[in-house]
Write a structure and sequence with these properties.
The chain is of the alpha+beta class. The chain is built from twelve helices and eleven strands.
Amino acid sequence: MAFNFGAPSGTSSTAAATAAPAGGFGGFGTTSTTAGSAFSFSAPTNTGTTGLFGGTQNKGFGFGTGFGTTTGTSTGLGTGLGTGLGFGGFNTQQQQQQTTLGGLFSQPTQVPTQSNQLINTASALSAPTLLGDERDAILAKWNQLQAFWGTGKGYFNNNIPPVEFTQENPFCRFKAVGYSCMPSNKDEDGLVVLVFNKKETEIRSQQQQLVESLHKVLGGNQTLTVNVEGTKTLPDDQTEVVIYVVERSPNGTSRRVPATTLYAHFEQANIKTQLQQLGVTLSMTRTELSPAQIKQLLQNPPAGVDPIIWEQAKVDNPDSEKLIPVPMVGFKELLRRLKVQDQMTKQHQTRLDIISEDISELQKNQTTSVAKIAQYKRKLMDLSHRTLQVLIKQEIQRKSGYAIQADEEQLRVQLDTIQGELNAPTQFKGRLNELMSQIRMQNHFGAVRSEERYYIDADLLREIKQHLKQQQEGLSHLISIIKDDLEDIKLVEHGLNEPIHIRGGVFS
C-alpha cells in the first residue's frame, strides 16, 4: 500500500494491541475506518463484526495446520462435565459457542484510545514538534521510513510517548496475500491439533506414552480413549499431532467427542499447564468454516491490508471452494510459509519416491508374471499334445480287433474328400501357392525398397573413400616392412647356419 498523505485507503491497525499468535496469522483486526482528515487519520467506525475471529483466544489463524476455535463456555471433560449426553462424561446440552480463527476479527477496541493513537501517528509522520526547527522535517521522514519498515518508535512530541510502529500499521510495505487450504472436517469428527516442540521421530517413538499422558490430562476416565489420527513434521523441529477422543457409554455405544468441547477443555488454565509440560506449544481445532464465517472473513480486510489488495486477492483466488486468502505481514511470516512449503515439498518428494519404488516393484512383478504365464501356456500346450497322444493310443487299443464302423467309414470318406480338394491344382493348393508367391514378391520388393531407402552423401562417400585409401596405403607400407624384416631374418639364419656346416666338415 502506498504512503499517500492525500487520500489513502482507510483501514486502521488495531492489531498492535493484540498478542501475536503462536504459529498462525493472529492479530489482524477487522475494524475499518474511513478517511476523515487530510491525513486519513480520523476516528474509526466499528463495523460491529464480532464472533468469527475472537481476539481473546489467539490460537492459530494457521491454515497450514488447521483453524483454531474457542468456545463461549468452558466445558470440562471427565466426571465434571455432567451427564447430559448419557455417556457419563460429556455434557450434551447445546451451548452457544463462538468459533474463532486466532484473533483476526472481533478485537475489542476503544474508540478514544484509537483516535488518539491515529492522531499521534499522523503527527509523527507529518508534523512532529520535538525539536522545533528544520530537524523536525528530517524526523518526520525518519518516522515515515520506520512506518514503511513496520518497526521502531516515532517520536513527535516531548510531552507525549512515541508511537510504536508495528508491521500491522497501514503504511507497512512488507505485506502480501497468500492462500491456504480450508479444513473440511466437521465438529463431530472431534479432530484437535496439538503442536509439540519435538521432532517427529521422538513423537513416534513415544506415541504410546503420549497417549497415556493425554488420557491422564483428560482425568483418567475409563470411558474415554485417546486416538492419534496422524502426525506431520513442521519446521523448526516441531511436530503436528492430530488426535480425537472416543467416549464409550455403558450400553456399549461410542461416539467421538466434539472438537470444540475437547478444545475448550484443553484451554483451561490447569489443563493448559499440563499440556505445556508435555511439550505442547499450540492447540487448535480442525473444523471447517461455516458459510457465514467465510463471508465475514472475506468482507473484512485484515488490519493494515489495503481493501483494494484484499478484493484483488479474492478475485485471483484459484479455487474459492478450497482456498482462502490469508495475509502475510513481514519477512518472519514469509519465512515461516517458505519453511512450511519446503517441508511439504520434501514430504511430497518422499511420497513420490515411495510411489516410484512401488511402481518399479510392480513392473518387476508384471514382467515375472508375464514370463510365468508364457511358461504355463507352453506347458499347457505340451500337456495337451501328450494328452491327445495318450487318447489316440488308448482309442487304438480300445478299437483293436473291431471292424470299421459306419460312422468311422463316413468320417474317413470326408477326410479323403478334404485331402483331395486340398491337393487339387485348381483348388486350395493352387491358391495357396499363388499366395505364397505374392508374399515372396512383396518381401523381395520390400527388401529392395528398404535398400534404396538409405543413401550416402557424396561428400561423406568421398571422405570414406579417402579414409579407406589411407588405410590401404598404411597396410601396404606395413606389409613391405614385414617383408624386409623377414628377408633380414633369413640372412641372419643363413649366417648362423653356415659356420656349423664348416665345423662339421673339419671334424669329419
